[in-house]
Every structure is written in structure tokens, then in C-alpha cells.
Specification:
Elements: H1 3-17, H2 30-46, H3 48-76, H4 78-82, E1 88-91, E2 97-103, H5 108-123, E3 127-133, H6 139-151, H7 159-168, H8 176-185, H9 190-197, H10 200-215, E4 223-226, E5 229-232, H11 237-250
Parallel strand pairs: 2-3
Antiparallel strand pairs: 1-3, 2-4, 4-5
Helix pairs in contact: 1-2, 2-3, 6-8, 6-9, 6-10
Length: 255
């Protein structure tokens, strides 16, 4: 079979595929399949840019699909995401922009993003910050999250920021011991804290965050939610501020 025949087969297949009755691969003879496969292989080897463009197109398609699914979750689960009774809310509770952060106290990149988030809160009096404990980096992270969740009972609203920022800025591995030390330094009732740590409320709150993270396809920390957009990683102050400003302006991270 000549190359022109191979091209003819491809054209026939593509043309028919757009009609109501696509051609089955079984309709090609074994010899046609073998020669067509060899032709396609040679073409891709000699034209690798075609394959690269196809991979890039597939990656973009997958990202677009994932973004669309995430936006649906943001809309359908907005209550749990933006105003859950289990979350820590810092800043202006009625702000026109809300920044949600999924974080882990042992996450190096979350520590790196802390100055950016702190600066945003300081410079933007119309910003609401929602903190979501997402302890995915081991048992120590889970224990620290339990202490933090219990500490919120004694540190409502902005008062919790002192605990959160001090613990997140700590050096070395963070677990129950480190979290309790911060709570003690801030003068919390340690007996009440120990009791609250084991309460069903703490467990329910952490489970809610895990379910939200799964629905949003979050695989790492920090991950931010702004408007209907999900921003993955410590992207820096300028990018975060730009997205926050857009939410103030039009309700979306990109106007």
C-alpha cells in the first residue's frame, strides 16, 4: 500500500467519524492496520512537534475540565467553603472579597506564603480570610490541626490569627507538643483545650475540610479559593493581590 493509500484511509476514517456511522477499526484489514501504524509512527518520529502540540492540547483540555468541575463545587458547596461553623474567619467578615486558604502547619510553602497573606490582610480592610486546616503531611499535622481547631473555641475571629501565625511560622516539625506550647504561651485554658480537642466538633470540622478538598481536587498546600477560581501553590503577593482586587471588582479572580 502506497503512502497515498494510507492518507486515503486516514481521510476516509476521519471523514466517516464525523458522520452518523463511524468506521470501526475492525473494518481495516490486518495489512492495512500494520502499514497505517508504521506510517503514523514514522510521521510522528519525523515530526515530533506534532506530538508535543497534541500533548499540550490534551493538558489544556484536562485543566479546563478540572477548572470547570472545581467551579461547580465552589458554587454548590459555597456554604461549607465560605461560611462553615468549623472554620476560622479573619479580617472583615462582610468583606467584598473572600480568600480561602487550605493549609498544613508542616507545609514549607504555606510558611512561605504566610508573609504574603499577612500583608494582604494588613493592606486590605475589605478582605475576609477563611482558614481551612488540611493536615495531609502526617500524624503531626493532624494533631496540630486538632489543637488549632480546639483553640478557636477560645480565640474567636481575629484573636485566632495570633495562634495561627505563630504556629505556622515555627521552625522544624510541628505536632501536638508545638501546638500546645503556642496555646500555653497565649494563655489559653489548657484543661478546656484538651477536652475540646477530643470533641466530635473537631472531628466533624476536619472531615468537612477533607471532603471539600477531595471535591475540589486539591492535592497540595497551600491552595487558595478566590471567587470561583482555585489557585494552587504559593504564587506570591502580587498575583494573590491581583486576584483579590479582581474579586472586589467583578466577583471573579479574573475579570
Amino acid at each position: 500500500m502506497k503512502l497515498t493509500t494510507a492518507f486515503g484511509l486516514i481521510a476516509a476514517f476521519v471523514g466517516t467519524a464525523s458522520s452518523a456511522a463511524p468506521v470501526s477499526a475492525d473494518e481495516f484489514t490486518p495489512a492495512q492496520k500494520q502499514e497505517l501504524g508504521a506510517f503514523i509512527k514514522d510521521y510522528l518520529v519525523n515530526n515530533p512537534d506534532v506530538l508535543r502540540e497534541a500533548i499540550q492540547a490534551l493538558d489544556k483540555h484536562d485543566k479546563d475540565v478540572a477548572d470547570a468541575e472545581r467551579q461547580k463545587v465552589v458554587t454548590s458547596q459555597s456554604g461549607a467553603l465560605f461560611s462553615s461553623k468549623y472554620q476560622a474567619t479573619i479580617g472583615n467578615p462582610k468583606g467584598s472579597a473572600t480568600l480561602v486558604e487550605f493549609f498544613d502547619y508542616n507545609c514549607h510553602f504555606c510558611k512561605g506564603a504566610l508573609p504574603d497573606v499577612t500583608r494582604l490582610m494588613k493592606e486590605d480592610p475589605n478582605l475576609k480570610l477563611v482558614l481551612k486546616d488540611y493536615p495531609v503531611l502526617g500524624p503531626g499535622s493532624v494533631e496540630a490541626a486538632k489543637v488549632a481547631s480546639a483553640a478557636r473555641n477560645q480565640l474567636p475571629g481575629d484573636k485566632f490569627w495570633a495562634f495561627h501565625s505563630k504556629l505556622l511560622a515555627s521552625h522544624g516539625p510541628i505536632g501536638k507538643t508545638e501546638a500546645l506550647a503556642v496555646a500555653r504561651d497565649l494563655g489559653l485554658d489548657m484543661e478546656k483545650l484538651a477536652k475540646d480537642m477530643e470533641s466530635p466538633e473537631v472531628k466533624s470540622g476536619l472531615n468537612e475540610v477533607m471532603q471539600l478538598a477531595d471535591a475540589l481536587q486539591i492535592t497540595g498546600t497551600p491552595t487558595f479559593v478566590l471567587g470561583q477560581d482555585v489557585v494552587v501553590g504559593a504564587v506570591g503577593f502580587d498575583q494573590l493581590k491581583g486576584k483579590v482586587d479582581s474579586v472586589h471588582k467583578c466577583g471573579r479572580a479574573t475579570c
